[in-house]
Amino acid sequence: MRFVLEPEQQDMADTLRAMFTAADVPAIARSWADGDAESWRKLWRSLADLGVTGVTLPEERGGLGLGPVELTLCLQECGYAGLPGPVIESLAFLPALLPDLIADTRVRTAVVERHVPHALDADLADEVYACGPGSSRLLPGAPSQRKGSFDAARRLFEVGDGSGEEIPGADFERAFDVAVLGCAAYLLGLGHRMLDLATEHVKQRQQFGRPVGEFQAVKHHLANALLKLEFTRPLVRGAALSAGTPHGGRDASAAKLAAADAAHLTSRIALQVHGAIGYTAEHDLHRHLTKTAALRQSWGTPAWHRRRIARTLTTDPDTPIGSP
Q1: Which residues contact 151 (CB under 8 A, 6 or more apart)?
Q2: 60 HSE (CA, 13 A, CB side)
Q3: Domain residues for 247?
Q4: How far apart are CA 94 and CA 167, in angstroms?
Q5: Does residue 1 form part of some domain?
Q6: How confident is the model at residue 94 (pLDDT cuts 50, 70, 90)?
């Protein structure tokens, strides 16, 4: 299996990272948390101009016609930047679910039976969907009630479960697996950003006249985080390469588990080396900490994915591990 990026894929990732850096995503996230979507939508339109909002959609529907590998690269960079909004829903889940979706600048969000009980940023979205194995519907009207969230930029809403427009031809299982893969990629990006923040912090902070990063114990903690993240990367890439195969769902679950565990470990280490300042909402680390905790439980809890993997291996022990 080849895990090295093609030059065009690396260029895509580099372009997105430069765009997010220039756009000042931390400031956009603060505005988004306050309900001001103007700067976020400006960035979203720029992503649409690059084709990111239709990265996996076929060219005849205005998309780039690319595959899951490119999708994971885009979502990994979104995670690295800590981009708020229904990114996984709009880029991964709904493009795979809706058979006639056209690439555009519309923002879409969804509630997903059992796994995503509240619609992310439903008040600022253009379309809200209610989806499950038996039925997927476009919901009419506005969200009913906002719910509390420990991540201020993850604005959760209850939406009505009344009648809506049924979506014919929706492939829920496939779309859910794509969203799980996208969530894994986003978590991987979050983890790498928290590690970079921690590394930069220990280079600058001094104790006993030396940078904290020179102490062996700190080096070991950061090395453990890097090791965990680097072992996650091939699992995410392998799940992208096996997407759509009979064992694609199991591989997506494995990638989500590994990414959630790696990001969680990295968040604890990053917070430990930052100290109390890492708790403050003004620090960039805080945004990534809260998103990691939320996404670790979203799109299937760790326990759910472990059961799924175990069930798959039990019922089909000859299934190959990874892409053929």
Answers
A1: 287, 290, 291, 293, 294
A2: 2
A3: 172-315
A4: 11
A5: no
A6: very high
